[in-house]
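Lecture notes, structural biology module. Today: joint structure prediction for complexes of two components.
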Amino acid sequence: MKSFEFWFDFGSTASYLAWTQLPALEAATGATAVFKPMLLGGVFQATGNQSPANIPAKGKYIFADFSRFAKRYGVEFNMNPWFPVNTLLLMRGAIALQMKGDPRFKDYCRAVFNAIWVTSLNMNDTAVASQALVRAGFDATALIALASEQATKDALKAATQTAVERGVFGAPTFFVGDQMFWGQDRMDFVKEALQKAR
Amino acid sequence: MKSFEFWFDFGSTASYLAWTQLPALEAATGATAVFKPMLLGGVFQATGNQSPANIPAKGKYIFADFSRFAKRYGVEFNMNPWFPVNTLLLMRGAIALQMKGDPRFKDYCRAVFNAIWVTSLNMNDTAVASQALVRAGFDATALIALASEQATKDALKAATQTAVERGVFGAPTFFVGDQMFWGQDRMDFVKEALQKAR
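The predicted structure, tokenised, for the full assembly:
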């Protein structure tokens, strides 16, 4: 069974756009996306990279760029008014569910991505995030408790460090074996790499 | 007659790759590329943006990324061992020829792009640059004198400032009317914009 890794952070606009295109990529290649939660802020700190939004001219442009891709993909996309979103708790929630093998891991990812990039919620606010998770059918209190366990914190830190060690400097980042591809705009190269892979 | 603007700096790898694809873009759209020389270093200084090569992990990746595009495009590409190239004199030469309406302006662009990104010459060295220009049929001494005139210096400075005022933060940057597109990897969007334009 072929697979590829999808390293992401919910707070990354490009990660959201890429995530919307994963089903099409999986269908076209017969490969499975292995979700790899990481903390983009930690990646930035370790590599010296930064959000394009930190450069005013780039930040202004990049929204137009993302909107063009959203239109091309035919997906909903609204710039989150609370950007940048502190995703520490949200990413911990993701890795905690994944570690437990919780079958709702992907539902959680959908709920969080959509809350930020479609519904424009202020996911910095734990109360708002809790309500969004409850609406998506989660026990928010239990999930936040799980996300706050030391083992969860350590797991996200370790995952982020692994990403950096493998050369990741931004999100999303894809791996097909050892081949790394950065950006939602490189999924055609990921597709080609998967089609060549045995 | 439809046209689009191509803002570039010879020292930008992505500008080179984009330049190789301009004929195909012109053929597909019936539009003409208007070459717009600028000094990328000046754009970086004005906007706070920087070369991806300044972030070690990004610099390492980006060469693989450019190589993938070169392969896709079927064009020669060799990373220049003297990167980053100080292109001040080279860009002044371009804008000087363009201002004079010299019919060899595009030959000059070809000679310089190829010297850096195909032949891997050290174009920081005026002697090496002169030899390359002589081989391409230019009177290098006259060209360097022209590039060093105050009017030339002012013109490049003004062009770079215009770019920044229009929102440019990197190279290459395309304009179709007021629509801005950054990167050699956005030429498909430029094509779409041109096909929609009347």
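Point to remember: The domain at 3-196 of chain B is CATH 3.40.30.10 (Glutaredoxin).
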